[in-house]
UniProtKB/TrEMBL annotation:
Protein name: B30.2/SPRY domain-containing protein
SUPFAM superfamilies attached to this UniProt entry: Concanavalin A-like lectins/glucanases
MF (Gene Ontology): zinc ion binding
InterPro entries assigned: B30.2/SPRY, B30.2/SPRY_sf, Butyrophylin_SPRY, ConA-like_dom_sf, E3_ubiq-ligase_TRIM/RNF, PRY, SPRY_dom
Species, as recorded: Stegastes partitus
Length: 222
């Protein structure tokens, strides 16, 4: 039956209008390979309104880079990260599953944060994984590390990989990080770490950027 398809989308057609409404189906087994993860692919775009002034957004909102301490000439905004060299995506994750991939270079933290987590100097630590409202993964130079609430855990025996995949099942409370290797249709994933928690509010993908680093959100052809 159509309801057995975990990627089901109901399409309602009206004159001059086609609206897609995603349906969250509970009690579906967790993905175990990249092909299964790809059923939940979501094309994200960077929100330049949240980007710290040291970050440069390009390629139609799919790439962020930080060069030095050089500041991008943009207006200050309440939603912009004041001190953390960080940027969020426009699209949030709520009552759904989502998967995305990021190609990166340099020292970066890839993760997700609650939409309402603090971004200004007076709101406490705001970097990914520095508080109770965000999670982050980074390459330390010798191993991967998962960060939460200012504490980190080493993930050993996994070599460096320039592409990271992230899977979120918000209702179940799962955030999984993967390394993505191979080329084209032969690409596969290896689970780095799975966070099991309670995700009580909408979360957004985010990126913390060190000097001379870049992140590019992979796009999947529609």
């Amino acid at each position: 039956t159509p309801l057995s398809d975990p990627s089901i989308t109901r399409t309602f057609l009206f004159p001059f209008l086609a609206e897609k409404v995603s349906v969250y189906l509970p009690n579906i087994p967790e993905p175990t390979c990249r092909a299964e993860l790809m059923q939940y692919w979501m094309n994200f775009s960077l929100d330049d309104k949240t980007a710290n002034k040291m970050l440069w957004i390009s390629d139609g909102g799919s790439k962020v880079c930080r060069r030095t301490e050089e500041v991008c000439p943009v207006l200050d905004r309440p939603e912009r990260y004041e001190y953390s060299p960080q940027v969020l995506c426009k699209e949030g994750i709520w009552n759904m599953r989502a998967y995305w991939e990021v190609e990166y270079s340099g020292w970066v933290v890839i993760g997700a944060t609650y939409e309402g987590a603090g971004r200004r100097a007076n709101s406490g630590p705001s970097g990914l994984g520095e508080n109770e409202e965000s999670w982050g993964l980074c390459w330390s130079g010798t191993c991967y590390q998962i960060w939460f609430n200012g504490l980190n855990k080493d993930i050993k025996d996994v070599p460096f990989c320039s592409t990271i995949g992230v899977y979120v099942d918000q209702p179940v409370g799962i955030i999984s990080f993967y390394v993505v290797s191979g080329e084209g249709a032969e690409r596969e994933v290896k689970l780095l770490h799975k966070v099991k928690t309670t995700i009580e509010k909408k979360i957004l993908p985010g990126f913390w950027m060190g000097i001379q680093s870049s992140c590019t959100l992979a796009k999947r052809a529609e």
